[in-house]
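re: ur msg from earlier - yeah i can do the glutamine complex, just paste it... oh wait u already did. ok heres what im feeding in:
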Amino acid sequence: MKKITKVLALALSAALLLPAFAGCSNDDASNSGTEDGEKEKLVIATNAEFPPFEFVVEKDKGIVGEYDGIDIVLMKEIADKLDMELEVSNMMFDSIIGAVSSGKADLAVAGMTVDEERLESLDFTDTYWSAVQTILVSKDNTDITNVESLSGKTVGVVTGYTGDTALSEIEAEKNITLKRYTKGVDAVQELVNGKIDAAVIDSPTAESFIKENPEIKGVTDDEFFATEEYAIGVKKGNTELLEKVNAALKEIKEAGRIEEIAAEVDARLQ
Ligand code: GLN
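and the outut:
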Protein backbone atom coordinates (compact mmCIF):
# COMPACT_ATOMS: atom_id res chain seq x y z
CA MET A 1 0.00 0.00 0.00
CA LYS A 2 2.57 2.52 -1.04
CA LYS A 3 0.20 4.15 -3.50
CA ILE A 4 -0.09 7.29 -1.43
CA THR A 5 3.63 7.96 -1.64
CA LYS A 6 3.11 8.83 -5.30
CA VAL A 7 0.64 11.49 -4.39
CA LEU A 8 3.02 14.37 -4.10
CA ALA A 9 4.49 13.69 -7.51
CA LEU A 10 0.99 13.48 -8.92
CA ALA A 11 -0.11 16.65 -7.21
CA LEU A 12 2.93 18.40 -8.63
CA SER A 13 2.25 17.26 -12.15
CA ALA A 14 -1.39 18.31 -11.73
CA ALA A 15 -0.16 21.75 -10.67
CA LEU A 16 1.96 22.01 -13.79
CA LEU A 17 -1.10 21.31 -15.92
CA LEU A 18 -3.18 23.95 -14.22
CA PRO A 19 -2.45 26.91 -16.51
CA ALA A 20 -3.93 24.90 -19.39
CA PHE A 21 -7.32 25.11 -17.69
CA ALA A 22 -7.17 28.76 -16.76
CA GLY A 23 -10.28 30.62 -17.75
CA CYS A 24 -12.59 27.60 -17.52
CA SER A 25 -16.07 28.63 -16.54
CA ASN A 26 -17.28 27.69 -13.11
CA ASP A 27 -20.78 26.68 -12.24
CA ASP A 28 -20.41 25.98 -8.57
CA ALA A 29 -22.62 26.45 -5.59
CA SER A 30 -20.62 29.57 -4.68
CA ASN A 31 -22.06 31.29 -7.71
CA SER A 32 -25.62 30.95 -6.53
CA GLY A 33 -27.26 34.37 -6.62
CA THR A 34 -26.05 36.95 -4.18
CA GLU A 35 -27.93 40.08 -3.36
CA ASP A 36 -26.44 43.49 -2.79
CA GLY A 37 -24.23 43.57 0.27
CA GLU A 38 -24.55 39.83 0.80
CA LYS A 39 -21.37 37.83 0.69
CA GLU A 40 -20.95 35.06 -1.82
CA LYS A 41 -21.27 31.64 -0.19
CA LEU A 42 -18.47 29.13 0.05
CA VAL A 43 -20.05 25.72 0.66
CA ILE A 44 -17.84 22.98 2.07
CA ALA A 45 -18.80 19.31 2.03
CA THR A 46 -17.61 17.46 5.12
CA ASN A 47 -18.39 14.56 7.42
CA ALA A 48 -18.42 16.03 10.92
CA GLU A 49 -17.49 12.77 12.65
CA PHE A 50 -13.73 13.19 12.53
CA PRO A 51 -12.33 15.00 15.58
CA PRO A 52 -10.20 17.10 15.79
CA PHE A 53 -10.78 18.06 12.12
CA GLU A 54 -14.58 18.31 12.12
CA PHE A 55 -17.12 17.50 14.78
CA VAL A 56 -20.52 18.62 16.00
CA VAL A 57 -20.92 20.69 19.15
CA GLU A 58 -24.00 22.31 20.66
CA LYS A 59 -26.14 24.33 18.28
CA ASP A 60 -24.61 27.81 17.69
CA LYS A 61 -21.60 26.94 19.89
CA GLY A 62 -19.42 26.05 16.92
CA ILE A 63 -17.30 28.15 14.59
CA VAL A 64 -20.03 27.88 11.96
CA GLY A 65 -23.39 26.80 13.43
CA GLU A 66 -22.82 23.59 15.36
CA TYR A 67 -19.54 22.73 13.61
CA ASP A 68 -16.07 23.01 15.08
CA GLY A 69 -12.66 21.51 14.27
CA ILE A 70 -9.34 22.31 12.59
CA ASP A 71 -10.88 22.16 9.09
CA ILE A 72 -13.80 24.39 10.09
CA VAL A 73 -11.57 27.08 11.63
CA LEU A 74 -9.14 26.84 8.71
CA MET A 75 -11.98 27.23 6.21
CA LYS A 76 -13.52 30.10 8.16
CA GLU A 77 -10.18 31.94 7.91
CA ILE A 78 -9.88 31.11 4.20
CA ALA A 79 -13.47 32.28 3.57
CA ASP A 80 -12.77 35.53 5.46
CA LYS A 81 -9.70 36.15 3.30
CA LEU A 82 -11.80 35.58 0.18
CA ASP A 83 -14.58 37.78 1.62
CA MET A 84 -17.01 34.88 1.35
CA GLU A 85 -19.51 33.38 3.78
CA LEU A 86 -18.70 29.85 4.90
CA GLU A 87 -21.48 27.27 4.84
CA VAL A 88 -20.99 23.71 6.09
CA SER A 89 -22.79 20.85 4.39
CA ASN A 90 -22.53 17.75 6.59
CA MET A 91 -22.87 14.40 4.81
CA MET A 92 -21.60 10.81 4.70
CA PHE A 93 -17.88 10.66 3.93
CA ASP A 94 -18.39 8.73 0.72
CA SER A 95 -20.85 11.36 -0.61
CA ILE A 96 -18.33 14.21 -0.39
CA ILE A 97 -16.51 13.74 -3.69
CA GLY A 98 -19.81 13.46 -5.62
CA ALA A 99 -21.16 16.60 -3.93
CA VAL A 100 -18.15 18.61 -5.07
CA SER A 101 -17.89 17.19 -8.58
CA SER A 102 -21.61 17.80 -9.15
CA GLY A 103 -21.31 21.40 -7.91
CA LYS A 104 -23.61 20.91 -4.87
CA ALA A 105 -20.68 22.02 -2.72
CA ASP A 106 -17.61 24.06 -3.65
CA LEU A 107 -14.95 22.27 -1.65
CA ALA A 108 -14.28 18.90 -0.04
CA VAL A 109 -12.84 19.63 3.40
CA ALA A 110 -12.76 16.51 5.51
CA GLY A 111 -9.24 15.66 6.63
CA MET A 112 -9.18 14.17 3.18
CA THR A 113 -6.07 12.33 2.11
CA VAL A 114 -4.95 13.00 -1.45
CA ASP A 115 -4.59 9.74 -3.35
CA GLU A 116 -4.44 8.64 -6.96
CA GLU A 117 -8.05 7.54 -7.10
CA ARG A 118 -9.38 10.80 -5.66
CA LEU A 119 -7.16 12.82 -8.01
CA GLU A 120 -9.15 11.28 -10.85
CA SER A 121 -12.34 12.88 -9.49
CA LEU A 122 -11.16 16.13 -7.93
CA ASP A 123 -8.30 18.61 -8.03
CA PHE A 124 -6.59 19.25 -4.70
CA THR A 125 -5.01 22.29 -3.08
CA ASP A 126 -1.61 22.25 -1.43
CA THR A 127 -1.52 19.92 1.54
CA TYR A 128 -1.93 21.15 5.12
CA TRP A 129 -1.54 18.13 7.40
CA SER A 130 0.29 14.79 7.55
CA ALA A 131 -1.15 11.70 9.18
CA VAL A 132 -0.69 7.96 9.24
CA GLN A 133 -3.13 5.14 9.98
CA THR A 134 -3.20 3.95 13.59
CA ILE A 135 -4.39 0.54 14.79
CA LEU A 136 -6.51 0.96 17.91
CA VAL A 137 -6.63 -2.01 20.28
CA SER A 138 -7.67 -2.64 23.84
CA LYS A 139 -5.03 -1.38 26.30
CA ASP A 140 -4.27 -4.88 27.60
CA ASN A 141 -3.89 -6.39 24.12
CA THR A 142 -0.38 -7.76 23.51
CA ASP A 143 -0.77 -9.83 20.34
CA ILE A 144 -1.56 -7.01 17.89
CA THR A 145 1.69 -5.18 17.24
CA ASN A 146 1.50 -4.46 13.48
CA VAL A 147 -0.64 -5.10 10.39
CA GLU A 148 0.77 -8.63 10.00
CA SER A 149 -0.64 -9.56 13.39
CA LEU A 150 -4.16 -8.54 12.32
CA SER A 151 -4.28 -11.90 10.54
CA GLY A 152 -7.32 -13.85 11.71
CA LYS A 153 -8.73 -10.80 13.52
CA THR A 154 -11.87 -8.73 13.10
CA VAL A 155 -10.95 -5.15 12.35
CA GLY A 156 -13.19 -2.09 12.21
CA VAL A 157 -12.72 0.57 9.55
CA VAL A 158 -14.82 3.48 8.33
CA THR A 159 -16.35 3.04 4.87
CA GLY A 160 -14.38 4.83 2.18
CA TYR A 161 -11.62 6.08 4.45
CA THR A 162 -8.04 5.43 3.41
CA GLY A 163 -7.77 2.87 6.24
CA ASP A 164 -10.58 0.90 4.58
CA THR A 165 -8.83 1.12 1.19
CA ALA A 166 -5.46 -0.01 2.59
CA LEU A 167 -6.81 -3.00 4.51
CA SER A 168 -9.26 -4.04 1.77
CA GLU A 169 -6.23 -4.74 -0.42
CA ILE A 170 -4.89 -7.38 2.00
CA GLU A 171 -8.14 -8.55 3.59
CA ALA A 172 -8.27 -11.91 1.76
CA GLU A 173 -4.54 -12.58 1.67
CA LYS A 174 -4.07 -11.94 5.42
CA ASN A 175 -7.39 -13.49 6.43
CA ILE A 176 -8.63 -10.29 8.09
CA THR A 177 -12.34 -9.82 8.67
CA LEU A 178 -13.16 -6.18 8.01
CA LYS A 179 -16.20 -4.60 9.65
CA ARG A 180 -17.21 -1.31 8.09
CA TYR A 181 -18.81 1.53 9.99
CA THR A 182 -20.13 4.91 8.91
CA LYS A 183 -18.57 6.66 11.93
CA GLY A 184 -15.21 6.17 13.61
CA VAL A 185 -16.86 6.56 17.00
CA ASP A 186 -19.02 3.48 16.32
CA ALA A 187 -15.95 1.36 15.53
CA VAL A 188 -14.32 2.58 18.75
CA GLN A 189 -17.44 1.72 20.74
CA GLU A 190 -17.43 -1.82 19.33
CA LEU A 191 -13.75 -2.12 20.19
CA VAL A 192 -14.38 -0.95 23.76
CA ASN A 193 -17.24 -3.48 24.02
CA GLY A 194 -14.96 -6.28 22.81
CA LYS A 195 -16.99 -6.89 19.63
CA ILE A 196 -13.98 -6.36 17.35
CA ASP A 197 -10.24 -6.90 17.91
CA ALA A 198 -8.97 -3.62 16.46
CA ALA A 199 -10.03 -0.47 14.61
CA VAL A 200 -7.94 1.42 12.05
CA ILE A 201 -8.25 5.18 11.68
CA ASP A 202 -6.11 8.29 10.99
CA SER A 203 -3.61 9.14 13.73
CA PRO A 204 -5.02 12.53 14.85
CA THR A 205 -8.51 11.05 15.20
CA ALA A 206 -7.10 7.95 16.92
CA GLU A 207 -5.42 10.20 19.49
CA SER A 208 -8.65 12.04 20.04
CA PHE A 209 -10.52 8.73 20.64
CA ILE A 210 -7.76 7.47 22.99
CA LYS A 211 -8.15 10.61 25.11
CA GLU A 212 -11.85 9.90 25.47
CA ASN A 213 -11.43 6.15 26.02
CA PRO A 214 -8.53 5.33 28.36
CA GLU A 215 -9.18 1.60 27.87
CA ILE A 216 -7.75 1.69 24.33
CA LYS A 217 -4.28 2.35 22.90
CA GLY A 218 -2.73 2.96 19.49
CA VAL A 219 -0.29 0.77 17.55
CA THR A 220 1.52 2.02 14.44
CA ASP A 221 3.04 0.20 11.48
CA ASP A 222 5.25 2.51 9.42
CA GLU A 223 6.30 -0.36 7.16
CA PHE A 224 2.75 -0.91 5.96
CA PHE A 225 0.99 2.42 6.24
CA ALA A 226 2.38 5.27 4.15
CA THR A 227 2.24 8.86 5.35
CA GLU A 228 -0.93 10.57 4.14
CA GLU A 229 -1.31 14.23 3.29
CA TYR A 230 -4.58 16.09 3.77
CA ALA A 231 -5.73 18.69 1.24
CA ILE A 232 -8.87 20.49 0.13
CA GLY A 233 -10.68 19.07 -2.89
CA VAL A 234 -12.06 21.28 -5.67
CA LYS A 235 -14.21 20.38 -8.67
CA LYS A 236 -11.98 19.28 -11.54
CA GLY A 237 -10.95 22.21 -13.70
CA ASN A 238 -12.12 24.93 -11.29
CA THR A 239 -8.69 26.55 -11.28
CA GLU A 240 -10.08 29.93 -10.30
CA LEU A 241 -11.30 28.67 -6.93
CA LEU A 242 -8.30 26.36 -6.52
CA GLU A 243 -5.87 29.23 -6.94
CA LYS A 244 -7.81 31.52 -4.60
CA VAL A 245 -7.98 28.87 -1.87
CA ASN A 246 -4.32 27.99 -2.35
CA ALA A 247 -3.27 31.63 -1.99
CA ALA A 248 -5.25 32.01 1.26
CA LEU A 249 -4.04 28.64 2.55
CA LYS A 250 -0.43 29.65 1.84
CA GLU A 251 -0.77 32.81 3.93
CA ILE A 252 -2.33 30.87 6.79
CA LYS A 253 0.37 28.18 6.66
CA GLU A 254 3.19 30.72 6.48
CA ALA A 255 1.80 32.58 9.49
CA GLY A 256 2.03 29.33 11.50
CA ARG A 257 -1.74 29.36 12.01
CA ILE A 258 -2.33 25.64 11.31
CA GLU A 259 -0.47 24.61 14.49
CA GLU A 260 -2.17 27.38 16.44
CA ILE A 261 -5.61 26.36 15.18
CA ALA A 262 -4.86 22.74 16.13
CA ALA A 263 -3.84 23.81 19.66
CA GLU A 264 -6.96 25.97 20.04
CA VAL A 265 -9.23 23.15 18.91
CA ASP A 266 -7.41 20.73 21.19
CA ALA A 267 -8.05 23.02 24.16
CA ARG A 268 -11.75 23.20 23.26
CA LEU A 269 -11.91 19.39 23.07
CA GLN A 270 -10.60 18.95 26.65
N1 GLN B 1 -7.91 10.81 5.87
C1 GLN B 1 -8.88 9.78 5.72
C2 GLN B 1 -9.36 9.71 4.30
O1 GLN B 1 -9.14 10.60 3.56
C3 GLN B 1 -10.08 9.98 6.64
C4 GLN B 1 -10.83 11.23 6.36
C5 GLN B 1 -12.07 11.43 7.19
O2 GLN B 1 -12.51 10.60 7.88
N2 GLN B 1 -12.68 12.53 7.17
O3 GLN B 1 -9.96 8.76 3.92
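cool cool. Residues 47, 50, 93, 110-113, 161-162, 202, 228 surround glutamine (CB under 6 Å). ping me if u need the other ligands too
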